[in-house]
Specification:
Blueprint: E1 4-8, E2 18-21, E3 39-40, H1 48-54, H2 61-73, H3 76-88, E4 91-95, H4 104-118
Parallel strand pairs: 1-4, 2-3, 2-4
Length: 119
């Protein structure tokens, strides 16, 4: 089992292992051919309603984390490619948010690590 790391898509350097975009929308100003992806897993992104409610407000992050983890609990099929890749080696989760501490990739990384250690 490899490590799961997160990187901002605009700062991403080629890393080892599999790379997945984990946002629901394609990042602005990034050409698809410029990203070396193993997949774009849109279905693991927060729902549009949750994303709008959160609005990248740090004071809402803990509640966002709880709600997003509940959404992830209901999406086992969407998580499968990420879990399988992580069992084989390192995985990089790419996201577009400016805030590097309060975003969906942080929650998703922790969620996947929890799933891998309890599986």
């Amino acid at each position: 089992m490899g490590d799961i790391v997160i990187r901002r898509v605009y700062d991403a350097e080629p890393g080892e292992g599999a790379a997945f975009l984990v946002d629901g929308m394609w990042p602005r100003g990034v050409r698809k051919e410029d990203l070396k992806l193993n997949g774009w897993v849109r279905d693991v992104a927060p729902s549009p309603d949750l994303r709008r409610w959160f609005g990248h407000r740090p004071e809402r992050f803990e509640e966002f984390r709880l709600r997003y983890r509940q959404e992830l609990d209901r999406a086992p099929d969407a998580l499968r490619p990420l879990l399988e890749a992580a069992r084989r080696g390192s995985v990089t989760l790419l996201y577009a948010a400016k805030d590097t501490e309060h975003n969906n990739a942080v929650v998703l990384r922790d969620y996947l690590r929890d799933r891998l250690t309890t599986a």
